[in-house]
Write a structure and sequence with these properties.
The chain is of the alpha+beta class. It has helices at 22-28, 76-88, 139-148, 155-169; strands spanning 6-10, 16-21, 32-40, 46-51, 62-63, 66-69, 97-102, 111-119, 131-137. The longest helix has 15 residues, at 155-169.
Length: 172
């Protein structure tokens, strides 16, 4: 079908073993790839977005600043930059900083995930088909919100927030 999203299907080592349409990848729980971007403003606040109710996974939940699947043949860094432009209408002030990676698992929807940090000072232009709300949060405020209302957030967001907190505690 024309215009159908195609994803690289990967093995347990994140090596491409095939290509399949998005619907098949999700229906069969095949391993694939995604990039998430944590957008911080110069004051150190993190932008979080509320996913559209039309999303097939975690509709209406709060999530990272920008995120998306890698298209077939695309690398993680390119996907992260593309998602910043598509979802938030911005480019980072400086090169993206890779923070950490997650193995594919149930919490990530069988996605291998690379998480990047971006500093953005330009006004965000939210894509309404993707995002129904967004806000800037201090990390402590976000941690408190996650503890009080865990179901407000995607499972992947919880994993990312925990890894981010651990990396700051460890001085990374």
């Amino acid at each position: 079908m024309a215009g159908e999203e195609l994803f690289d299907v990967v093995n347990e080592r994140d090596e491409v073993i095939g290509v399949a349409p998005r619907a098949q990848v999700h229906a069969e729980g095949l391993r694939h790839r995604a990039a998430h971007v944590l957008v911080f403003n110069p004051e150190g606040h993190l932008f979080v977005q509320r996913r559209s109710f039309s999303k097939d996974n975690s509709p209406g939940c709060w999530d990272t600043s920008a995120a998306g699947h890698l298209d077939a043949g695309e690398d993680y860094h390119a996907a992260a930059l593309r998602e910043l432009g598509e979802e938030l209408g911005v480019a980072p002030d400086a090169p993206l900083e890779p923070l950490f990676r997650f193995e594919a698992c149930a919490d990530t929807g069988q996605e291998f995930v690379w998480v990047y940090r971006a500093i953005v000072s330009a006004p965000l232009q939210l894509e309404p088909a993707e995002i129904i709300d967004g806000r800037w949060c201090a990390l402590a405020e976000l941690d408190d919100w996650r503890r009080r209302a865990p179901d407000d957030f995607t499972a992947t967001f919880h994993r990312i927030a925990e890894a981010l907190s651990a990396s700051q505690t460890n001085g990374d």
